[in-house]
């Protein structure tokens, strides 16, 4: 799957503030394989869709001001941090 992922990443345009390593790290690929019971084809398709969504939506760029209203009505909730020390936001 790593080989296919690297070829796919080369074929798309990644914004400057993102690293291809975010998408093709062993941990990321393992997460998708584990989530799809190690079915390579299904896991790869989900991974590819996730990369396309992430590059299109750029969730890491959502400013705090845009989130304040959702927090006010309790539609968003900070859950803590993940194992990489990234904040976890539940929508």
Shape: globular
Give the helix/strand class: mainly alpha
Placed side by side, the strands forming the largest sheet appear as 1-2
What characterizes the major β-sheet? 2 strands, antiparallel
List segments where confidence is low: pLDDT < 50 over at least 5 consecutive residues.
none
- Mean pLDDT comes to 83
Beta-strand content bin: 5-15%
Radius of gyration: 15 Å
Q: How far apart, in Å, are the first and last alpha carbons?
A: 30 Å
Q: Spell out the helices and strands N to C.
A: HHHHHEE
Give the helix proportion (percent range). Answer: 55-70%
Number of domains: 2
Extended strand count: 2
* Assembly level: single chain
- How many H/I helices? 5
Task: Write a concise keyword list for the protein shown above.
mainly alpha, 5 helices, 91 residues, single chain, two-stranded antiparallel sheet, 2 strands
Describe this structure in words.
Helix 3 (26-35) packs across helix 4 (40-57). This protein is globular. It folds into two domains: 1-57; 62-91, no CATH class. It has 91 residues and is mainly alpha-helical. It has a two-stranded antiparallel ribbon with strand order 1-2. The two termini are 30 Å apart. It has five helices and two strands, in the order H-H-H-H-H-E-E.
